[in-house]
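Hi R.,

Here's the chain you asked about this morning:
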Amino acid sequence: MEHNRQVSETYSAKSDQLFRQALAVERSGKKSTAVEIYKEILRYHPTHIDTIINLGVLYYEDGNFSGAIELYRQGLSAQPKNSLLHYNLGLVLQNSGELDAAIISYQKSIESQPENANAFNNIGIILMQRGDYSRALEAFQRAIDTNPAYAEVYDNIGRLLEEMGQPEDAIASYQQALSINPQLPSVHNNIGLVYKALGQLDESALSFQKAIDINPNYAGVHSNLGSVLADQGKISPAFEVYKKALRLNPDLAEAYGNIGRLLLQIGQADEAVKLYQQACKLAPKSSAIYSNALYAFLHATDFSPGRLSQKHIQWGKQFHVNTNHFRTDSECGLRGRSKIHIGYVSPDFRQHAWSYFIEPILLNHNKERIKVFCYANVIRKDKKTEYFKSISNHWRDISCLSDEQARNMIANDQIDILVNLAGHTSQNRLSLFSLKSAPIQVIVGHYQCTTGLSSIDYRITDQWVDPPESEGLYLEKFSYLAYGSLCYSPPSDGPAIYPVPAEEKGYLTFCCLNRLSKINHNVISVWSELLQGLPKSRLLLKDKWFSDSHVKQQVHNIFNSYGITSKRLTLLPSVETYREHLDLYNQVDIALDTYPVNGQTTSCESLWMGVPVVTLMGNRCSQRFGYSLLSRLGLDELVSHSEQEYILKARKLAFDRDQRLSLRFNLRSKMKEKICDASTFVQQLEQSYCQMINHYMRNKSD
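And here is the predicted structure, written out as tokens:
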């Protein structure tokens, strides 16, 4: 957005002399002196347009928006058709948040100067911010028609096409901008971001590097390049680039967040939390940074349940529910319709751990009573996405839609209950729920705290994960399922269960296939004490970051500090297929749960493969999922309430060969009844939905 000065018109000799003097002073960098000279001119010549425009620019640059607006309107009272005054007024109004007034000013500027490409471009920016994509594209096209060599407009069109879910077209538009001016680092950066979202990491890194070559001091690009290097598993180079970003801009919140994310992934949760706290301090209004921080806070060893709840509620306060968008009962379909309309919103309609809990819900709804809509926010679609699409009654891709557009789609579908399946995990659309897109909104599943949104009415849970006394920690009301809050759908082509490996190996093998982010020093110290009491035993861990020698050595060093040598550890990187992942359980005897964040998918997998799980129950939701699963299976003897009890119960199971043999070949049948009975689970889920609707209707009629 370009702000223009006026230097051409002539007035009295004295005015012209002072004006030239002010220009010279301003160009020498003495802006405050120039301001005083401009003011002196206006004292005896209040409609000196050249002065009004230039003083308005100085006010604008100094952040004095109200002063600039007053000046420009003063000038327009004398010259109501002055295109430059209208344009500059529009720019100030736009940057002060008065967007409707800004558009009007730009349009008046265009009326006086139809070839004003800048005005068309700025109108397009405002419309894009509002989610009015078609009109924004029209405005950008008018700018290009007026000035075909306007590279910045192609940049804006690229960003618009990204938001519209057209990444390939966005790249083409960015490349068009670079064909006009290849020295635009921001455009190279934007292309890099698109490639990253598409998973084309080599191309992304190359684009970011081009931006850095043009502008080595572009801190944000260094941070973006670091995130690509991290995704490529290049940990040390990623840290170096992040450090460079912070040297260039010590207040770059995104860099602190990116470093925190990487530290969390490689098992340094407490250090990650500190960096996320710094990121939130620097960017308190960034919903994305704060949401990522909340997920990290769940892994902190020193956060109480109350503190976690407060952090989430604080995040939610930035959203204000607009009740003007509520529909009448007849419009939302809660009266006089035979089927209930349920909408599921998730980024995980893809190959993802949570997909094994989504699948049984979609497959087992009563189609005579329930009409299911899937609102997919899937950025990188895969074969599992196509599978989910095939079993969905009504598939809606919202990855390319703004929250406003998605809400309108939900309204048109007459959704009665909108269900969130992600919480504060990656690519969530909680902001959509802040718009109260349906009369009843619910969160189901695995997220381990309140969402922090008062617009979400219910939390589907169970008495083990969320006992009644914890309801005060949530903004959502509890809706209990007697069966349990999770239903696991094991793969139909999974591996068979082999005999306990200790019989053949002559020693016991423990395992934990949870992400490294869940394995902290407290957990390692307890595991080490357990291993020391069983000198022949081994421990198997798996995480994609074990492909990095630095991370492997870091874990070895921590265990070694507790007296466990590397010979007793097997650290595996990712395997190729899910079947291979499950087959790893045939190499182990006992699974060890993590805390304060328990395993969910991994615990279900372990139990399905006949491997018992020892868990440590805590006083917060994230540390009660193991308790929930084991209680449902009648295995309370594997649930501990302290670290010493955890060690004792794991050791007792290690010495109880008969119990391990029995569990090996009986757990799967128990799982089918207590954890994997999708029909029972979904029946209870539907009953819960009906109770919510009945409660809603009673309140509406009161």
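One quick note: DSSP finds 32 helices and 13 strands in the chain.

Cheers,
M.
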